[in-house]
Specification:
The complex is a heterotrimer of chains A (about 270), B (about 350) and C (about 270). Chain A has helices spanning about 1-25, 45-50, 55-85, 90-105, 105-120, 125-150, 155-165, 170-195, 200-205, 215-225, 225-250, 255-265. Chain A is mainly α. Chain B has about 350 residues and is an alpha/beta fold. Chain B folds into two domains: about 30-130 and about 255-315, Periplasmic binding protein-like II (D-Maltodextrin-Binding Protein, domain 2, 3-Layer(aba) Sandwich), CATH 3.40.190; about 135-255 and about 320-345, D-Maltodextrin-Binding Protein, domain 2. In chain B, the strands form two sheets. In chain B, strands 4, 5, 6, 7, 8 and 9 form a six-stranded mixed beta sheet that branches. Chain C has a two-stranded antiparallel ribbon with strand order 1-2. The chains are: A mainly alpha (about 270), B alpha/beta (about 350), C mainly alpha (about 270). The interface between A and C is large, with 90 and 91 residues.
């Protein structure tokens, strides 16, 4: 009895979580622009979506920014994690606290502080400022993904490699890097999704001619309900589903811990 | 496993590299950054311009004059052509943010109706070329509002509680309250402004929402009975939903004009002027006016448009209807008082 | 392994893009630009102390607290259900729970707009039942609903992860000693789950108190929150000094709440998420 109660409670919560999304998906195929009623199946919104210059450009920007920022953040972040791992206790503590600043700070403050920096230094707001901002908020997540792998590392491995005549750099590349690779990849994927998902920081740090999908959605949503957004949501939902499926296949055990981290974003 | 990971990483890096390359190498054409109101152009016009002049247009939109002004003022963006409204143009001229136009490059200026030349915000017409104009009035749904709509007072009628949409724009909303009370929309009289504030606070419980462009969608869908709207939007909405009607309140209202200007951030003034001139080509101006539905200051366009539309008082009102219609003036530092009042109303 | 230098690019990066920007916010918040130049002032903070702004702060905190309480009340049982052995494929259930969070939160908020409108689906359903339509969108409740919808998983997951780590033998021991289910929960399970509860509270309260998007989209511009105020100062009014001052106040509110929470967490020796 109690078991049934618990299950139906869970069912209710799942309904609460999924109903709005599912309705959005279903109505992306609705012929009528009006919401209350279903007037027939259509793919017209998808067609319009792909013909919309602004949306297509935003999609392009979103992808380029996500790919570049996650790749750069992964390189810098992995190196940083190796450095931090080798630090003494006090120094490590200080650096880790700095690392947590962008995680803990409200996004709106991170966003506007970066905007102030760019304007103060007369840096043109646009693609580059957006990219720099995305790298900035991605970095901590890469580090937080790589550090645990470094901690699990057997110290002797590296020394053994050195004893066998490897240069330190060679030893890192051939011994350490492969060992921490799962963490690096998780960091990369995490950074990638966070970058795609971000709205607030992008909103403040973008300039002429460059907007991401989130920004477009915000301005479209402010203009009112638009079936094109439904179509866009459907496509993004399916894309995320696929991405998550791939990630889950790869790291079925560990991914959960990282998801939790990402939730602290915004 | 490791190999797969490395492959993935390499692929991602490569993809990023290729994408940046393609975005750099893509275009050697001149790039023109255009910043306009949302939904305020027939987008095919941009393609036509790009093809005709081999110039790439970066088209971007804003939702309020203030948004646009702050973006330009902060120096974070370098647009070439802007479409601000009257009072913002006045302010930008005052603050030396605009280039004087070279009208030799804009021969199509000859089509602009005299009525819209040399308006107060640009007295000698040196900085701007009018794009669209219109009024602010009340749009109502005839199935929900049975009485004749003649006055702003109807927006304070308790009968329509939670069925009224106001504009989320300080100048417009405070202006409506000022006109309702019989004051000037550009007043600097603190007592009058206080009265307007009290009126807006009194009205707030009746208001469904303070909206921007979403007003169109909401009124067409029948979400509300009354809304303060720009005349151009009203024409569009009437077309979409025949139950809607537009009224010009007798107390007077705001007459506005949006015009094209070139900010000093522009690095390509000649191309910008080319663009402005292109927008004034009769064919192009007609396309825009037809698509947007706003009233055009272009003499040729008026001849080409559907006669029914030109006869519509909402789109092209008679001069005598516009007696008490003020054009917004730049308030300078006094704007802070308006801003404060608006914050007080909204946070009440 | 003395390879600190590997972290130097990162440290430099953080100094430029995290440290300096925050210093700038601080700088703007305590200065004013006059004809003679820039001078130190506390007037922006003074201005914030005026009733209209305090009212905005009060409303933000109030809505965030309401949202946090609702999330806790509904989230805790959900975490218990997830942590218990009710489902054959527990991992899948947790995955399904997290899934919607991977969708852009603007889209999730937007989804509610289409539901709550007067011509939206809920009202269409009501009128189908012959009931009068309700004013759902553009109310304070809609804003809270949007927050709860977006932030509920932040409450459930930390509690779930603490609950699923609790040593089952503790509960069995309590039962052996004659405790009934309620007592076990009150004396064993709940106290042990407190660290999760505290991090859940922080993780819900923080984004809720700083949001400007949810209140803009679901509140119809009527419910100015502190986030909206900041956005407005920077992007509409252009008063960066006052905007920075409000941001400083907001950071203070957040830091205090995090400080309080992590103190509790430490006292309970939990695995803090921060």
């Amino acid at each position: 009895m109690i078991r049934l109660l618990k299950k139906s409670y869970a069912a209710l919560i799942y309904l609460f979580l999924y109903a709005p999304i599912l309705i959005l998906l279903v109505f992306s195929f609705n012929a009528s622009k009006a919401r209350g009623n279903w007037t027939g199946f259509t793919l017209k919104w998808y067609l319009e979506l792909f013909q919309d210059r602004q949306i297509m450009k935003a999609l392009y920007h979103t992808m380029v920014i996500a790919v570049l920022s996650s790749a750069i953040a992964t390189v810098i972040g992995t190196a940083a994690a190796i450095g931090i791992h080798n630090m003494k206790k006090l120094k490590k503590k200080i650096v880790m606290n700095i690392t947590y600043i962008p995680v803990v700070n409200p996004d709106i403050v991170t966003g506007l502080s970066l905007m102030l920096l760019f304007i103060f230094t007369k840096f043109r707001l646009g693609f580059v400022s957006l990219l720099l901002s995305h790298i900035t908020f991605n970095l901590p997540y890469v580090i937080l993904s790589v550090l645990p792998k470094l901690r699990q590392l057997d110290k002797n491995l590296y020394e053994a490699a050195l004893d066998l005549g490897a240069t330190p750099f060679y030893a890192y590349r051939k011994v350490i890097l492969p060992e921490i690779m799962p963490g690096v990849i998780t960091g990369l994927l995490l950074a990638f999704t966070l970058s795609i998902d971000d709205f607030v920081i992008s909103f403040f740090t973008t300039g002429s001619g460059v907007s991401t999908l989130s920004i477009i959605v915000y301005s479209m949503a402010r203009r009112g309900i638009n079936p094109k957004i439904n179509a866009l949501s459907t496509l993004l939902f399916v894309a995320v589903l696929l991405l998550l499926f791939i990630v889950n296949l790869r790291t079925s055990g560990t991914s959960h811990e990282h998801k939790k981290r990402s939730e602290q974003k915004w | 496993m490791v190999k797969k990971c490395r492959f993935l990483l390499a692929a991602v890096l490569l993809a990023g590299f290729v994408l940046t390359l393609s975005s750099c190498g893509q275009d050697k054409r001149v790039v023109l950054n255009v910043y306009n109101w949302g939904d305020y152009i027939d987008e095919s016009v941009i393609d036509l311009f790009e093809k005709k002049h081999n110039i790439k247009v970066n088209y971007d939109t804003f939702s309020t004059n203030e948004d646009m002004y702050v973006k330009i003022k902060s120096g974070g963006a370098d647009y070439d052509v802007l479409f601000p409204s009257d009072y913002t143009i006045e302010r930008m001229i005052k603050e030396d943010m605009l280039y004087k136009l070279d009208f030799d490059n804009i021969p199509n200026y000859k089509y602009i109706d005299d009525r819209f030349r040399n308006l107060d915000y640009d007295p000698n017409n040196e900085y701007s070329v009018p794009y669209m104009w219109g009024t602010v009035g009340i749009l109502y749904n005839k199935t929900m509002v049975k009485e004749p709509v003649t006055s702003w007072r109807i927006l304070w009628d308790k009968k329509y509680s939670k069925q009224i949409l106001m504009l989320d724009s300080q100048r417009d909303s405070i202006g409506v309250a000022l006109k309702m009370l019989g004051y000037d929309m550009n007043t600097r009289n603190l007592a009058e402004l206080e009265a307007a504030k009290e009126a807006l606070i009194e009205q707030k419980p009746l208001v469904l929402a303070y909206v921007g462009d979403d007003v169109k969608d909401k009124m067409i869908a029948g979400e509300a009975a009354l809304a303060v709207v720009w005349s151009g939007d009203a024409i569009y909405m009437k077309r979409e939903n025949p139950d809607l009607e537009y009224a010009l309140p007798q107390e007077g209202s705001n007459l506005w004009c949006d015009a094209m200007v070139i900010p000093k951030t522009s690095k390509n003034k000649a191309a910008a002027e080319l663009f402005i001139n292109f927008m004034c080509e009769p064919e192009i101006a007609y396309k825009n006016a037809d698509y947007i539905g706003y009233s055009s200051p272009h003499t040729e366009v008026k001849k080409m448009l559907d006669p029914e539309l030109v006869a519509d008082k909402a789109a092209y009102p008679d001069e005598e209807d516009l007696v008490n219609y003020d054009i917004f003036k730049d308030l300078g530092d006094y704007l802070k008082v308006y801003d404060r009042i608006w914050t007080e109303v909204k946070s009440h | 392994m003395k390879k600190y230098w590997a972290s130097y690019p990162y440290l430099l990066w953080m100094v430029i893009f995290i440290f300096l920007p925050l210093l700038l916010v601080l700088f703007y918040s305590v200065t004013v630009r006059t004809e003679e130049g820039v001078r130190f002032t506390l007037e922006h903070f003074q201005r914030f102390m005026e009733p209209i702004y305090l009212k905005v702060l009060y409303r933000s905190v109030k809505l965030a607290v309401i949202c946090t309480v609702i999330c806790l009340v509904f989230g805790y049982p959900m975490a218990m259900v997830l942590a218990g052995n009710h489902f054959k494929r527990k991992q899948v259930m947790v995955f399904l729970f997290v899934m919607p969070m991977w969708m852009n939160f603007l889209l999730r908020t937007y989804a509610w707009m289409t539901l709550l409108e007067r011509t939206g689906l809920i009202n269409a359903f009501l009128s189908w039942l012959g009931l009068p339509s309700l004013n759902l969108l553009y109310t304070e409740e809609a804003v809270v609903l949007g927050m709860v919808y977006n932030f509920l998983p932040f409450m459930v997951l930390p509690i779930y992860s603490v609950l699923s780590k609790i040593d089952k033998s503790l509960i069995e021991a309590a039962q052996d000693l004659g405790a009934d289910d309620v007592t076990v929960f009150r004396k064993v399970t709940f106290p042990l789950s407190l660290p999760g509860v505290f991090s859940g509270i922080t993780m819900v309260f923080m984004p809720a108190v700083t949001t400007f998007v949810i209140s803009r989209l679901l509140g119809g511009g009527q419910f100015t929150l502190i986030g909206n105020l900041i956005e407005q100062q920077f992007l509409v009014v252009g008063d960066w000094n006052f905007g920075s001052a409000i941001s400083m106040v907001m950071m203070l509110v957040i830091l205090i709440s995090i400080g309080v929470m992590s103190k509790y967490e430490k006292e309970n020796e939990g695995s803090g998420l921060f």
